[in-house]
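Appendix B. Worked example

We walk through a single record from start to finish. Start with the input: the chain for Release factor glutamine methyltransferase, Candidatus Criblamydia sequanensis CRIB-18, length 282.
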Amino acid sequence: MKSLLEILKAAQQYLLDKKISFSKREAELLLAHVLSLQRMDLYLQYDRPLTKEEVDEYRRLIKRRGNNEPIAYIIGSVPFFGALIEVSKNVLIPRQETELLVDLIANRLSKVDLSNKVLIDVCTGSGCIAVSLKKRFPSLRVIGIDLSKDALETARKNALLNQVEVEFLEGDGLNPFVQKADFFVSNPPYVKEEEYEGLEDEVRLFEPKMALVSGHSGIEFYERFEKELPPKLNPGAKIFFEIGCLQGDLVAKVFSNRPVWRNLQIEKDYEDKDRFISLEFV
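Next comes the structure step. The output line below is what the pipeline stores for this chain.
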């Protein structure tokens, strides 16, 4: 039997040859997954012999990664803002940028009395935003909405997995929501149709197109929200969006044509790129 270190080095080289970024880290993550270990525990077990069954399973997963399948889909879950989020090919993989959006929202919510307050998350997907915010703020009523029945199935699983009560509604945009909200958040599709073919293979070939592509301009969802949000919001409601890194001024302009919006801010991500917009309903 070959040792853990021998198998790991061979896997790292295989991923490197396949031009997979962070090949060492990803080979380690997949091996830790197979062995039900923490990644750091591997360093203490380099001499451990692996069974044929362990090697065969590891090679199967490494081959999938070598074919550009995202590691999150292979492992089946990702940590996200204090929650564990299961993912499938029916939902977009939660990104670090979205986790930063949730952190931004949590900082604002922590300063507010959330008794009897309602937050809606449209285009909820895996439910990562809705579930993680409900987990952080149990007194907040959280509702997630998505058009995809399959995505909502994953979102409901994530609520159960994280032991939180989130209401999930199936439907187009805000249509299923017939009440008024105090907080609105959305990470909607914002990729232009013409940009789709230029996306990385592991995004374009594996993640759901409907969760990525907005349409011709990339800002269709924001234009729709600007029209449809007012009747669904309580006075003073706070709104949060994730946006494309080149869309800050475009989305800001969408919300500058009517006096019902105020305090609009364009927020930056880790790379100092425009990534979020926050504003308030008058």
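Two observations about the output. The chain has two domains: 4-67, 80-281. The chain has a mean pLDDT of 97.
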